[in-house]
Amino acid sequence: MDIAFLLELSANGILIGLMYALIALGIVLIFKSSGIANLAQGAMAMVGAYVAWALLVLAGMPLWLAIPLSLAIMFFFGTGIERVALRPMVGQPVIMVVMLTLGLEILLRGLAPAIFGTAIKRLDLGIPQAPIIVGPVLINTAYLVSGAVALGLVLLSIMFFGTRLGTVLRAVSDDQMASWSVGIFVERAIGLSWGLAGVAAAFGGILWGSVQGVDWTLSLLLIKALAIAILGGLDSIPGVLIAGVIIGVLESVVPAFLDPHVGGGTRDVVASLVILLTVILRPHGLFGREDIERV
Amino acid sequence: MVKIGLAQDFTAVYTFVTSDYNQGQRDYFTLINERGGIDGYTLQVDVVDTANQPQRGIEAYERMKNDGVVLVDFLSTPVSRAVVPRALKDQVNMMTIMHGRSDAADGETFPFIFPMSPLYWSQAASIVKYIADQENGDLKGKKIAFVGIDSPFGREPLPIFQALADKEGFELSIFHYPSPGNEQSATWTSVRRVRPDWTIIWGAGVGQTVSLREAIRNGIKLDRLVSNAWLSEVDTEIAGREAAKGVLRFEGVAYGKDLPIIQAIENEVVAKGKSAGPAEKVGSSYYNIGVAGAALVVEGIRHALEKAPGKLAGPQLKAGLESIANFDAQGLMPPVTISARDHQGGGKGRICQWDGTRWVPKTDWYAASQDLVWELVRKTAQEFKASGN
Amino acid sequence: MFYRLSGIKPVSYAADAQLWPVPFDRSLVAVIIVLAVAAPYVLPSLYLGSYLLPWIIWATAALSLNLLMGWAGQIHLGFAAVMAIGAYGAIHLVRAGLPFELALLGAGLLSALIGLVFGAAALRVKGLYLAVSTLAMQYMIDWVISHVPAISGGSQATLQTPTIRLLGLPVVSEAGYYWTALAICILVTAFMLNVERTSFGRALVAVREKDFAAAIIGVNAFYYKLAAFWVSSFLGGVSGAILAFCYYRAVTPEQFHLDVSIQAVAMVIVGGMGSVLGSFLGAGLVLLAPIVLNNLVVLAVRWLDLSLPSEIVALIPLILYGGLIVGFLLLEPLGLAKVYDNVRKYFLAWPFRNVQR
């Protein structure tokens, strides 16, 4: 076995896993506060990328202004969605609300290209194309930057949940009724989590958009992100990080050795097997909290 | 009036090509109408979105059939495949230019299906021929890597590549990335590891963009990287115009505006504000493919009306299309000759190169290993025939 | 809908337990069945072949999934894979020389067998975790189908369905396909209507509401969860086979991808979980709304003579479709069946407004 080969696969796998984790982070943030899996997270990432592109290219803003501005816009976009579509659904069966987010996903997937144009867009963040070469190992610069941003953002989220506001969010996730009774403005807390999810989506969308170009296909990142969120445990932020890395590395390393023997891309199958095994062995994900059910 | 149905995928998988392609088709039909139609017949185009879903394609097809269309174009492999049995039964012509079943080139098994463009198998053979020419005809011991999307489409050219590898003696390594291909870094690490002399990429849409970027990153020499027909200036734009310099692709239809037929569209359609889309798309790779397809259809209608004036239904148009001979749309494409047996039209194409701003032809129009291609066409067509009972 | 429930006084258990105690309901069902059977003579072939036929097939599939999601409360994101097993199974069985009727059964059994494996995951997890396990299964089955040419059919990955013979008679016309699908649809609908009334259905509902509680009152949750997966997959496999034979007539792996699974789930949820009528309404909305919206928008653009680029014309229906799903759920989260119920209750007391909604 070739060590350099393995190293390179693992290194890039870790970074890609982190990039997926960025999208998954938004799902976890919303799940933690409201118990809903947001199936529109991929579409939100797509909107974030479109917004950043519009600011950069259409409005001609410099990078340092366009990125923070698009993050801010996406924050309000997230809270806006919560206010308009999710708040009326409070108290309805979870599956209906999840379906609603799927409807949102379809809506956004039509709306964004209709507004900004269907042609695929180039989003240039000024990240050099040339790889970083460490000994015999080539590391993708764009992935390195994205991975670092993802890592930072996840760590920031972990820290955030230690603050007062974060404690409020934790309380809401624990028990919405009890939070109401102690004077927490539950709706506002859920709105905040949607805003933060919007920011995470914007980061994810912009970074992925710079790699693959901006068009509607960015919304397809949802599936992988959902798998990572569930593997890590839907309500665990460190879980996202670790699950992202695990999936990233396995998806990168295993197919490289398996593909030549079976004649086809085994990546999604490997990921599926990992998920299936985890669910069977650890039903609540790696770090998810196991709720005790009472009759 | 002649009705033509364009039920294409504007919102799902083929978004990277559909709008340019569709605009090209409609602009050419508009050009013909502006000039007074064909023998007094004007063309009416029906456009609808199928979102790549077979059930929507079937609905669109049935509705268009009721409207009396003589030719349909889905520009979607799954939808085309699902409608093939119906079109054959209803005697409605289906154009599958640059997509659909390759074995539909066998006009005897698929009388109403018209690829009229180099099949993927022909593209594969032409690419190998080009590589062999660059290596002075000797591919023995050379390493060629194939990087394709992991779908039936990405596996389709493999039989030809393998047959040629056996014949020419090159070493073929095959890599597949999962659909849709927005992330391929592990695949390309493996590609780099075999140190290929030549690399062939085989995808469409976002997969091609990412393949190109990853090839650049992994230091693959771009003038030794060849794509199938689905690589356009949009992909090089996103990978970086300068960075993508040198990449090669197969083309079945010429690129650019310096062609009489495109000039005519500019002057008589776009200048009058009658184009079906933005003016800057005129002359782009996929736009020109649309124009080429439309030109073939118009040529077929012309022949059909010559043969049977005043009568134009499915079978007449089929006969018209099958009498197209040496038609090159004034240099837009290689001379195409279609017969009742051969619906491919010769399988000619050429290799062109991205020079940083445009695609520059590197060769003349040529076809390669057509005997091998046809052997495969006959074999799979036979399988199709056998499966219908 | 303008009818009263008064005067319905069952005097025996049999009368009380019958499917449609209201005479009006009985005649309505009879009229609908007569209309459905007569449809090929009444409807133009366009509407029969590309609206009604896919609608009843998808309604059958939605019913099968609804048994699992609506009655047993298990989420399933891999239903298209189950249908694919049925479709491919039936095609290969017919090719191997089995009569169509037996092949249909065989396809159902094959789907049920593999569907049970999905069910095994359900014994461990529920909710979203189950959703993702079934998603993983979908990927694995997709992969196997498209990577084994013996299943998917050679380098073109397309299989034509053989001509079917029912009781020795070849089915070739559109009407023949329609009646075949309709027969299966009626069978499955009747089965589902009866599920609600049997101990099996009630046990499923008990498991759905709370599996621990069900276990305490003596319902074997383990058995009923697996049974739900078994039955639902069986029916799903049969509807997949019908979809392939009666509608598509040429099968490719793309016809059973993940987005199709999501469509099936959408049919059940938008229609109404645990509702037979809802499955029909949901299938109608999810399947036909994009088509109808598309045609309407194209017509409107042509009529108003707007010169919009084709891609925008194509995106408007997508936006409307998404908006429709969001709108319906915001308006009535319990689905179309509940909307129908509300309307019916409103008219039961009309013109008075004394019925509580």
Kindly summarize this structure in a few lines.
By secondary structure, chain A is mostly helical. Chain A is 73% helix and 2% strand. Chain B has 389 residues and is an alpha/beta fold.
Largest sheet of chain B: 7 strands, mixed
| H/E element sequence of chain B | EHEHEHEEHEHHEHEHEHEHHHEEH
Spatially, the strands of the biggest sheet of chain A line up as 1-2
Q: Mean pLDDT score of chain B, rounded? A: 91
Q: Separation of termini of chain A?
A: 54 Å
Q: Quick check: average pLDDT of chain A? A: 87
Distance between the termini of chain B: 38 Å
What does this entry look like structurally?
The complex is a heterotrimer of chains A (295), B (389) and C (357). Chain A is mainly α and 295 residues long. Helix content of chain A is 73%, strand content 2%. The longest helix of chain A is centred in the N-terminal third of the chain and has 32 residues. The N and C termini of chain A lie far apart (54 Å). Chain C is built from 15 helices and 4 strands. The mean pLDDT of chain C is 87. Chains in contact: A-B, A-C, B-C. Chains A and C meet through helix 4, helix 9 and helix 11 of A and helix 6, helix 10, helix 12 and helix 14 of C.
Record the SSE blueprint:
The complex is a heterotrimer of chains A (295), B (389) and C (357).
Chain A: H1 3-34, H2 41-58, H3 63-86, H4 94-116, E1 132-134, E2 137-139, H5 141-160, H6 164-174, H7 176-181, H8 186-212, H9 221-232, H10 237-262, H11 267-281
Antiparallel strand pairs in A: 1-2
Chain B: E1 2-8, H1 15-34, E2 43-49, H2 54-67, E3 71-73, H3 77-90, E4 93-95, E5 113-114, H4 120-134, E6 143-149, H5 152-155, H6 158-168, E7 171-177, H7 185-193, E8 198-202, H8 206-217, E9 225-227, H9 233-239, E10 248-251, H10 260-270, H11 285-307, H12 314-321, E11 350-354, E12 359-361, H13 370-387
Parallel strand pairs in B: 1-2, 1-3, 3-4, 4-5, 6-7, 6-8, 8-9, 9-10
Antiparallel strand pairs in B: 10-11, 11-12
Helix pairs in contact in B: 1-10, 1-11, 2-3, 4-6, 8-9, 11-12
Chain C: H1 13-16, H2 23-42, H3 45-71, H4 79-95, H5 100-124, H6 128-147, H7 149-152, E1 159-160, E2 164-166, E3 169-171, H8 174-195, H9 199-209, H10 211-216, H11 221-248, E4 250-251, H12 258-271, H13 276-304, H14 310-331, H15 336-349
Antiparallel strand pairs in C: 1-4, 2-3
Helix pairs in contact in C: 3-8, 3-11, 3-12, 3-13, 4-5, 4-6, 4-11, 5-6, 5-11, 8-11, 9-11, 12-13, 13-14
